[in-house]
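To fix ideas, we give here one paired sequence and structure record:
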Amino acid sequence: MYNEIENRMIIVFGEGAVKVTPDTVHIVLTVQTRGMELQEIQQENAQNMHKVIGSLVELGIPEPAIQTIDYQIRPVNDYINGEQVFRGYEVVNTIRITSNELSKVGEIVDTAVKNGVNQIGSIDFTVQNSDEFYQKALTLALHDAETKMVTIGSSLKLANRPLVMKVEEQHTSQPVAFRAMAMADTVTPIESGTLTISASLLVKYRIV
C-alpha cells in the first residue's frame, strides 16, 4: 500500500484479482526443415505441414481454426576461424491452432509431433470474455482503495470522509496459465490451470 498526505490529499493504490478457468487455447506449432537444395527442402516442408494439418483435421480440429502465422526461408551459415561457411537453407512454417477443447491439448500436440512438427512455439490458455472478469477485478480494486482510505482516515482522526478527486487505472499484464510435462508412450499431460485477471487503481482523495 502507498499513501501520503500532501496538499490535503490522500493517495492510495487499490488492487483486485479474479481467478478464472480458461476456455480457449492457442497452440503454436512449427515444421522446420534444413538441407542444401532449396527446392527439395521446400517440398519436404510443405509435405510435412500438409500431413500435420491433415492429421489435426482428422482429430476434429476445423480448418478455419488452423492459421499460418509465419513462413520463412533463410540461409544457414557457420563461422569458422572468422570466415562464414554456407551450410544450406532452412525453411520454417508455423501455424497457430485455436481450440476450446482444452482436454485435447495433449493429444493435439502429440498428433502434430508424430506427423512432422518439430518445434512447439507456445501453448497459451485464455478466456474469451476476459473483459467481463477484468471489470470485476476493477470493482474489487476500487473497494480495496476505499478500505485503505477509510483506514488512513480513521488513523488520522479525520472529521469528515475524504472525497474522491481522481481515479487512475494502472495497466497490468495478464498472466497466462500453462502446465506441461512430457511422458514417454502416453498422451502428453497439459493442464490449463487457472488464470488470474488483475486490476490496479490509483485513487486520489481530498481531505475536507
In short: The mean pLDDT is 87. Residues 130-155 form the longest helix (26 residues). The two ends are 22 Å apart (CA to CA).
